[in-house]
Amino acid sequence: MPECVTAIVVNWNAGENLAQCVTALINQCGIDLNVVVVDNASSDNSLEALETYGDRVRVIQTGENLGFGRAVNRGVAVSHSAIVVAMNPDVVLQPDAVNTMVEFLNTHANVGMVGPKLKDADGQVLASCGEAPRLRDEICRKFLLHLIFPLLKFRRRSPFKPEAVAWVTGACFAVRRRVLDAVNGLDEAIFMYYEDVDLGLSINRAGWQVMYLPHAEGIHIGGESSKQALTRMLVVSEASYAYFIAKHLGQWAARLLRLLRPIEMTLRALLWGSVFLLAHSRRTEARARLRAYWFILTHGAVEEGP
């Protein structure tokens, strides 16, 4: 049986999704797997369903919402495994997914991190990996051109065979512990969003490959926790983006994109204003988005939203 691996699930009010996620981890085949759930001060009953597993699942209560990166680092700190699987609670892995990722790492010494193929609830393959950001692409995104040309969004892709990429989605990935140590873990300055792209770029720069593995699979329902606080999460996302761009493209690029931010927010407000008027079933989402865009327009990208 392969060496012990720790799966770290970051939970914040994930409801029944958490139990489904952990059950799939408990049922992984051919792997000695420890499961650690890092709970970011959930106020729902998502943890109650885990009681049936007893000491097979370790729960770490943070007492506050640390965000994704800090929570993963907290889980890594209480584990001793050579390989760590980090994931969102709305991901359900196929029974052989973890073993597939671990075997790949064990047989490819130059690979530091791998990510599986993820599908949505309807079975459509999600673009779960991509390339490093380019300034010209980011300028295009400020004019919402990525809505017409999705490849502009960090050149997201879903290859048909294993392929070296710049990053894999933070929804689920397996990484060597010594690689995490070498890059000082996930960047805790990023509360949520872009921490996965940041980690992939850091690992690549440190000399290891990041690989996408389509023969390891899972289902990603997607965004269930964020939907509960959509306005704040959109503002947090913009703050994370600004920090990420300055870190990887430089201060000059960050200043240029900051100057274009009002154009982007105005276009987004026009788009979602139309949704609010025309699609009654999406008015709650549209209202939350419009509040976020107005806040960013008037206050800029800050960590605490309205």
Characteristic key phrases:
306 residues; alpha/beta; 2 domains; nine-stranded mixed beta sheet; two-stranded antiparallel ribbon; 9 helices
Structure notes:
With 306 residues, the protein is α/β, with parallel strands linked by helices. The chain has two domains: 5-220, Alpha-Beta Complex (Spore Coat Polysaccharide Biosynthesis Protein SpsA, Chain A), CATH 3.90.550; 226-299, no CATH class. 40% of the residues lie in helices and 20% in strands. The protein contains nine helices and eleven strands. It has helices at 16-26, 67-77, 97-107, 135-142, 177-182, 195-205, 230-249, 251-278, 283-299, and strands at 5-11, 33-39, 57-61, 83-87, 91-93, 111-119, 129-130, 163-165, 167-168, 172-176, 209-220. Strands 1, 2, 3, 4, 5, 6, 8, 10 and 11 form a nine-stranded mixed beta sheet that branches. Helix 1 links the parallel strand 1 (5-11) and strand 2. Helix 4 (135-142) runs parallel beside helix 8 (251-278), helix 7 (230-249) runs antiparallel to helix 8 and helix 7 crosses helix 9 (283-299). The longest helix is centred in the last third of the chain and has 28 residues, at 251-278. The protein is globular. The termini are far apart. The model has no long low-confidence stretch (mean pLDDT 92).
| N-end to C-end Cα span | 50 Å
Structural class: alpha/beta
Tell me the quaternary state.
single chain
Beta fraction: 15-25%
- The string of secondary-structure elements, in order, is EHEEHEEHEEHEEEHHEHHH
- Rg over alpha carbons: 19 Å
Whole-number mean pLDDT: 92
Residues in helices, as a percent range:
40-55%
CATH architecture of the largest domain: Alpha-Beta Complex
Shape: globular
Quick one: CATH class of the largest domain? Answer: Alpha Beta
CATH fold title of the largest domain: Spore Coat Polysaccharide Biosynthesis Protein SpsA, Chain A
- The tally of beta strands, per DSSP, is 11
CATH superfamily of the largest domain: Spore Coat Polysaccharide Biosynthesis Protein SpsA, Chain A
Q: How many structural domains?
A: 2
User: Main β-sheet: number of strands, strand sense, barrel status?
Assistant: 9 strands, mixed
The low-confidence runs, each spanning 5 or more residues with pLDDT under 50, are none
Give the number of helices: 9
